[in-house]
Design brief:
single chain, 257 residues, mainly alpha, two-stranded antiparallel ribbon, 9 helices, disordered C terminus
Length: 257
Amino acid sequence: MTDPYQTFIKSKKRGEDIRRRAADPEGFEARCVIPGCGQPTMRAEGTGLAAFHCKRHVDHKARHGSHWHGTYRAADIAPYRKAADRWLKANAADSAVVSAVGALRGLLDGSGPFTPSTSLRGLPVRDRARIAFVRLARAEIKPETILAIHLAMSALIEEDPGSHRVREFRVVQVAKAVHRLASGYHRKWEFEGADGKTRATELHGYARSTGRVLRLIGEEIDRACEMLAADHMADVMALKVERYGTHPRKPQGPADR
């Protein structure tokens, strides 16, 4: 059980560290370092601790995993996903595939009770990340599907010359792609109006796709899949290139022209 006193002490020390860093007159840029931005950094503006980026680009990173690169569209990942599905079907008995699928199944099977998206506000980030896996399990999303998304996103980021090749970006992009599989809470009611006619009303709630929750979801998936992706991402990419060609932004060699 967490000691409330230790929690208080840690919170107090964290607050003191934040105030110290905010008061430091050095160690930050006046303007955001993203080319073409020109806005004051959050430290320079006195609105936060970001020393090299403005609020807009800090918020961008929280949502996308990169200060400058946006989220890939479903159409961007589709050919890699088809190649990953094809590779996984052909190698379903491989011990590394079996291990990754088992780890992902453990995430889905051990995710606990369900909480609707409309009731997530105020919950700790770890609880919200766990509930995301509950939604996936309730939607009957298979671990093989999540594994294919991880393999596909890893291959896309590697092949795209304009991508941001850092782990945080991959983790967030995988989490967002998986999150889209079962992100909403939907209910529909019918009621009788004053005129005696039956009408329907609907409620749609969506968990926010940003911040620490995304990272926790993506990190759990990444831990289960990263070894397989490191060893076989090139195989998935080769299948993708064979069927769909190289990435549109990737220079082609003489044999590809």
